[in-house]
């Protein structure tokens, strides 16, 4: 049974153990972008532990943070329609359906059969060769992908069963997740995974210590398991110990670990965020949550460490609060920070900034959103205008969420 209980469901993942990685090994925590496989990209943003990513309408990917104070284009990438990543690795989906990965590879999350990190994007081959991928997602140390035939592929760390193979073994190359044949999108949390199905249902698997699989238990789930009580889902996103889904009626549902200040409350079944209606997209971050309504307003709630809620104050918020001075937002993301994209393609961010993850040319934390600058630091970063025919759904795993289909 699904209960209407207002809660702050927050992703409470651990801080990066890989803070010393150079800027070239940046990653993101969620799936972002436009309609998977489309020829033009919908501008979006995502963030990892100490870095941020942005996707421009022309298919260019920008990254900043990890000591790099201003956005720079990722060399060797073009024609990208969606990006996703884990805390320290990055993924790009091109219009031709190929997946490219770079960054940390300590658990095989790049899928190249090694555990060697890569400073530049490399195409993921193996079982994905010849398969047109339509959605990608990155977790803490694992990666997910969906083929146009509805099958799901996974690789990387598997200590909690997040690969879905029920063997407890890390996989350095893509392997098929069993018993899924109608997936349309995926999202990856810190150590759990989920797939959105064509019929509007959701399957989840992996770590379930906080009820983040959504089956009414807190038992480990090393194989895909139905999320109970959800129908008509259009987008999903996973956090560290929590999960979220957007339904076709504009309602937002969350389950797993809810964290506010020093209290933690586990919810093993989907619960509606009753304060919000007409939700357009959302993103489950590390200790907070972001939601965009159809009117372009942004709402945030959760733990407000270093101003990551963007409310202009340092106070935690147990329920959604509207951000002032923010309008016409189409996409959100972050992880440790809050990143926003407007309909005109401008980016802004709030929260911790010690590694330059807000891209404003400084290392000053921000309590309210400030513009992310271009590579020269002379003007706001411009991502361009989204294609008129693109979708603006919500969700992603691990994702700012579009899965913006995402995460």
What would the principal axes of the Cα set say about the shape? Answer: globular
Distance, first to last CA: 26 Å
Question: Approximately what portion of the residues adopt beta-strand conformation?
Answer: 35-45%
What is the average per-residue confidence, as pLDDT, rounded to a whole number? 86
Pick out the low-confidence regions: 1-38, 389-407
Strand order of the largest sheet: 1-6-7-8-9
Number of helices: 0
Rg for CA atoms: 18 Å
Q: Tell how many strands the DSSP assignment holds.
A: 29
The secondary-structure class comes to mainly beta
Q: What is the succession of H and E elements?
A: EEEEEEEEEEEEEEEEEEEEEEEEEEEEE
Helix content: under 10%
Largest sheet: 5 strands, antiparallel
Characterise this structure.
The protein is globular. The protein starts with 31 loop residues before the first strand and ends in a 36-residue tail after the last strand. The strands form seven sheets. Strands 1-6-7-8-9 form a five-stranded antiparallel β-sheet, with no helix packed on it. A four-stranded antiparallel β-sheet has the order 2-3-4-5, with no helix packed on it. A four-stranded antiparallel β-sheet has the order 10-11-12-13, with no helix packed on it. It has no helices and 29 strands. Strand 18 and strand 19 (242-247) form a beta hairpin. By secondary structure, the chain is mainly beta.
């Amino acid at each position: 049974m699904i209960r209407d209980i207002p809660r702050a469901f927050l992703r409470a993942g651990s801080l990066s153990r890989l803070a010393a990685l150079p800027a070239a090994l940046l990653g993101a925590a969620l799936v972002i972008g436009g309609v998977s496989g489309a020829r033009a990209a919908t501008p979006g943003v995502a963030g990892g532990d100490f870095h941020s990513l942005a996707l421009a309408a022309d298919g260019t990917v920008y990254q900043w943070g990890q000591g790099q104070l201003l956005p720079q284009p990722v060399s060797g990438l073009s024609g990208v329609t969606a990006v996703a990543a884990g805390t320290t690795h990055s993924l790009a989906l091109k219009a031709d359906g190929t997946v490219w990965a770079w960054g940390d590879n300590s658990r095989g999350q790049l899928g190249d059969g090694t555990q060697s990190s890569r400073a530049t994007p490399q195409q993921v081959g193996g079982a994905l060769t010849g398969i047109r991928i339509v959605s990608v997602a990155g977790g803490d140390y694992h990666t997910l992908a969906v083929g146009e035939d509805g099958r799901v592929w996974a690789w990387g760390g598997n200590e909690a069963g997040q690969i879905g193979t029920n063997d407890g073994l890390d996989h350095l190359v893509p392997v098929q997740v069993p018993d899924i044949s109608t997936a349309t999108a995926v999202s990856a949390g810190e150590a759990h995974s989920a797939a959105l199905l064509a019929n509007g249902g959701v399957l989840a698997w992996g770590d379930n210590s906080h009820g983040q699989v959504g089956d009414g238990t807190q038992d480990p789930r090393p194989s895909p398991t139905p999320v109970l009580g959800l129908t008509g889902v259009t987008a999903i996103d996973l956090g560290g110990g929590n999960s979220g889904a957007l339904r076709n009626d504009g309602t937002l549902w969350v389950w797993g670990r809810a964290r506010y200040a020093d209290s933690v409350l586990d919810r093993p079944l989907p619960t509606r965020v009753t304060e919000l209606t007409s939700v357009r997209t959302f993103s489950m971050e590390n200790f907070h949550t972001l939601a965009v309504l159809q009117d372009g307003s942004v709402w945030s709630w959760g733990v407000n460490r270093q101003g990551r809620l963007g409310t202009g104050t340092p106070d935690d918020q147990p329920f959604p609060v509207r951000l002032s001075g923010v309008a016409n937002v189409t996409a959100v993301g972050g992880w440790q920070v809050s990143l926003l994209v407007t309909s005109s393609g401008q980016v802004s961010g709030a929260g911790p900034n010690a590694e330059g993850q807000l891209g404003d040319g400084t290392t000053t934390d921000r309590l309210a959103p400030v513009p992310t600058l271009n590579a020269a630091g002379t003007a706001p970063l411009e991502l361009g205008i989204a294609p008129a025919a693109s979708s603006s759904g919500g969700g992603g795993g691990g994702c700012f969420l579009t899965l913006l289909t995402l995460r």
